[in-house]
Amino acid sequence: MTAIDFTTSVPSPARAARVAAQRVQGTARQFAAGASPQVATRPAAGASTRLRLTLRGRRVLAVLAALPAVIALSAAVIGGGAALASRDAGAPAGSFTTVTVAVGDSLWSIAEDIAPDRDPRDVVDELVRLNALDSVVVQAGQSIAIPASYDSGR
């Protein structure tokens, strides 16, 4: 397994301080010994420090990268299951009747027939919700559930 290397153009502050202290101590020793001081060379401006990740560091990085996915998956498993299937028993028997759509019928005409005293927009909306329809378009021969609260004139 190869190490993951990161390079940076800024040396670590601790290393820079340590190198500076070594230069000062080396120059002081040379003066004490009577030798001519050598000019200390600085590392090139573009020199970079290599950062190596240990096995433990790679594991920590992998866990931190995977953590959001694990949290999202856990939330979906815990809270998302209720949206797919509920324990509601549904509509009780006898709370609605079914009507077969005839040729030329629309939800609007059915709404006017079953509830002539109510606003057809409200009745159409209730029919769409009760039958879980994607739109208000119905086909001839399709069975539509009608709430029993409406007087069935059909």
Concise account of the structure shown:
This protein is an alpha+beta fold. It has helices at residues 13-33, 55-84, 107-114, 120-131, and strands at residues 5-8, 49-52, 96-100, 143-147. The protein folds into 2 domains: 5-84, no CATH class; 96-147, Membrane-bound Lytic Murein Transglycosylase D, Chain A, CATH 3.10.350.10.
Describe the model.
The radius of gyration is 40 Å and the shape is rod-shaped. It starts with a strand and ends in a 7-residue tail after the last strand. By secondary structure, the protein is an alpha+beta fold. It folds into 2 domains: 80 residues, no CATH class; 52 residues, Roll (Membrane-bound Lytic Murein Transglycosylase D, Chain A). The protein is built from 4 helices and 4 strands. The longest helix has 30 residues. The chain has a two-stranded antiparallel ribbon with strand order 1-2.
Distance between the termini: 77 Å
Strand content: 5-15%
Number of helices: 4
Order of helices and strands: EHEHEHHE
Q: Which shape, going by the Cα principal axes?
A: rod-shaped
Tell me the number of strands. Answer: 4
Roughly how much helix do the residues carry, as a percent range? 40-55%
Rg (C-alpha, Å): 40 Å
Low-confidence spans: pLDDT under 50, at least 5 residues? none
Structural class: alpha+beta
Mean pLDDT: 78
Compute the number of structural domains. 2
Largest sheet: 2 strands, antiparallel
